[in-house]
User: Fold these one by one.
Assistant:
Number 1:
Amino acid sequence: MNLKNCIAFLLLSLINTSAFAQSESRNWNGKKCAVVLTYDDALNIHLDKVIPMLNSYQFKGTFYLIGNSPVVSKRIPEWRIAAKQGHELGNHTLNHPCDGSLPGRGFVTTETDLSKYTVPRAINEIRITNTLLNAIDGKTERTFAYPCGDLTIKDTLYYNALKTDFVAARGVSSGYANMKDVDFSNVNSFFQNGSTAEQMIAQIEEAEKKGSFIVFLFHGVGGEHALNIDLEEHRKLLEYLKKRKKDIWTAPMIEVAKYIRENQNK
């Protein structure tokens, strides 16, 4: 073997070794990647269908509750049971305010228009919701989810005043972040509407390929919301995650966020 061929062989070996090491990396609690299943808006379907399905596969989800939702006030004992089973109850504000000044926001009412809020009002309502959630599950650590993904009131990032109240805040922008680059004030998520299990599995496999994690953002699962995925597609997703438990860590948002914080600078 001449010198040129020898150098080429060594370079190829190094590349293959690096690729193998990356594919076999187990930085996510001993797994190749992490998956977080989040469900927004406190829907009846979450209690009636989603949580029983998650329990049957022994997975735990994160449910972002709207404080003033009747599905919260009328079903507190069931949410309390869900929390005891290991599901996370996250903060999705008191009134789910969204910025009504943005295009396509005809659904926003005068009372729930974030553009008409003051920052102190937003902070106060979010902290009231934390108090409510604490009364349900007894927990003091929690994560937050921005309604409609809106980060600002006028030009102010209102979450900046809440960073010590939460472990992390989930946004709505998709993307696969390296552990060291995770922004805890706006954690990426993959919004699902009409998605098939095949499409969602492909997103997981991309996260695994990149050695990253993925947060799924669901609303309706089998109905009750205009943003919806089919219940059977959701079941197929869980079936896949069950088969891949050796390599994929599925856990609530708070567990994954805390793990990232603990390991981000290692």
Number 2:
Amino acid sequence: MFIIFGTRGIKHTISESPVLMNSCPNCSNGSLVNKLYRRWFTLFFIPVIPLDVVDRFYECNNCKSAYNEKIKDILNQSQAVQENVQHQARYTYARALVAAMTHMSVIDGDFAAEEEREIMDAIEQFGDVKPELMQVMEQVKRDQNKDNFVFNLLNEARNELSAEAIMNILAQAGVVLLADGIIDKSEENLMKEYLIACGLPKDMYRTIIDKLQTKNIAEDEIEEVKPL
């Protein structure tokens, strides 16, 4: 009989922490719920023993934006300060996302047209900083991770954002790895290197794949009901 065991990160709501009502900087009317990621030992893929806490953060119950816990203090600042912090966090997120997506695309030596379209779609989401993101893409296409450029951007994002935001970055970046329908071992190892560069346990990889699969399922459902 084979025994299958491992670890995985599971998101929990911190029930004793007050909800920050109608305070999401992104959508304005969403409330921020305090959550944490805890690693669990799994047996036959079932979580059985709680392990260490990986990160605590706030998540909007409306738009699902995730914030470092310091957002609670920032919300007490002026509107101008809040907007500046939000803009900087968005810029940091975008740079890390484009760098990771591009690096994943060129790591096999073949920058496919489908992969470039995925990256350009991501860049268009941040139109106000599009020139800067285009520079990031071109630099990574040319130099890949020279001088740890990609890892440094991810680490910068981890210092400013939450673990949830980082895993959202890597899950969105992982879309380019599925261009051929599979993630091979070298691509899996690269994703784990990203996690380590962000100061996160490499076994959170499974959590990223869960996010990626959920995204793909949601897109499939949308495709099924799209009018002709």
Number 3:
Amino acid sequence: MQRPSLIVKKEVTTIGAAALQDGTSLLVVSAPAAYAALVNENEFVSLKGAEAAGITAANDIAQKALVWEHVKDFFALASGTPLHVLLVPQTATGADSTFKDLFDGIAGLATHYGALKTYLQTQGGDIKLVGVAVNPADGVSEADTTSISADLEAAITHAHTFANGEFEEHRPVEIILENRKFTGTATAATDLRAKNAGNVMVVSSRDKNRRLALEKDVDENPLIPSAVHYAAVGLALGKAASIQVNQNIGRLTVPPLFQTKDNLPVEEVEFSGAQSLNAFDKASLDMLHNKGYTFIDRYAGYAGFYFVNDNTCEDATKSNSRLSLNRVANKAARITRATFLNFLKATIQVDGNTGQLLASVVERFKDVITRAITEEMLQHPDPARLPEISSVEINIDPTQNVLSTKKVVINQSIVPTGSVDVIETIISLDNPS
């Protein structure tokens, strides 16, 4: 007999073209053991707090690893939002197994995996977003890529599976991976959407001026070798953590008045292999976007830089092809579990003749979950919180025989809010005479 449990399932569908700490994040970074020894805390709500615990710019330079840099980027956008930092050991062979180790629990690759799994367990589902950055061991050169490393390519699928496992453990997370040393053409780039890994986002660009400052000092002396190929995963993580779950990390303005720009603290954009954003023409950037890459972009005639979109490594027609859509589904799952745990193992009356659910019980279940999701995601009491969904509908088949199955199946249909990707206007010049 199955142990009493509440099961929440998330269905991936095909679509057309809070009391909850929705932004609580975990940044996982491979770093030297000596760096980890300097850090005496792992949860922060400000850059100042992280610095007091040993994550500093000076330690980045001394240990030749980017940790403070990613934390700094996060808090530049999400100050006051909880950020956990987990430092995992660098692999002896450099970067070519760090990602895979982190998400693959098979024998021989369980060290990093165990550390991440254990940390998420200890946090009891509080972590909603996971960002991962890699620092190759000093002196280890990274292999050339045509878009993504072999390690990252293998890890994308593992990370998606890992996130599905966390969902089943009632700790849903979304994962943002650093795409180091992106090089090559858009045509040759690996199609990330073909990976069918909707729980995973891959970030591939950064601020060129920041990279130059990290790579060498004013006298051209080398500072942090791993900075040569880094991508701004901290910015993506911070942007996601700073906005509501249904909002696109690439948005240009801040709702509801749309009068304030929401641009990134970036001066000049390049990809992680040092190719300038300007080196790619419109067709190439469109192709990279359509292949699921997330990078920093600009808009002609509009000041500032913004993420191109909130792409995940999934077919664009699927309901998990956007980070924002996934976050909406995960939040609804958390609310559902918290609401219905009160009913687990509860005594309910059934029809004396059929053993099926009474109409009053059906309506009670529908009312409770509808109200919970509506209050948290559709009509939040805080007027500053905009709706995160368009509607919710609950359906419960009243003919379920609870006496025989010991189970009640509840179907939720949530209509998400939309995201305007293209605005088409037609301009004509008319002669009024």
Number 4:
Amino acid sequence: MSESTISPATAVDALQQGGVIVYPTEAVFGLGCDPDNQAAVEKLLAIKQRPVEKGLILIADNYGQLLKYVDDAKLPLDKRADIFSQWPGAITWVMPAAKSTPKWLTGQFDSIAVRVTNHPEVKALCQQFGKPLVSTSANLTGQPTVMTLSQAKQEFAERVDFYVDAPLGGNSQPSVIKDAMTGQIFRG
């Protein structure tokens, strides 16, 4: 287990090696990994005790990082203004998934939940990694969300490969999750 009192580049090394990291998001600590590495995603799901069928969120520095996973052509023009006016920020949009998006990310759905973050450390991490991260709250499924790095270390110990030591983004609630096609709110 490594301590991140140094730059996120070491977290990037962990991600590139198929590791799972704990990192701060806008409101809570998250568990993350390389979305293209099936073994890493399966490890994250096992740590969290989350069924693959539920699907996962991807968090990115910019929309361009998400294009590989989203069927951009299915997003109506009138919906784009609403989506992009709320990014970067703590709004997660459920969008049509690209046909090539792996089921280990989408679960039972034909959609993918994505967010362009405004959290500076997460933006830097995604920039250095060159792509989005899987982003799910750092807790066991059904348990309270981890709000401090020390709680995360107590909860996950050596099962996590790297802990990013940076502050939360200051929001009091996890991201709102909305359907990009209908505007339906899944989590408010």
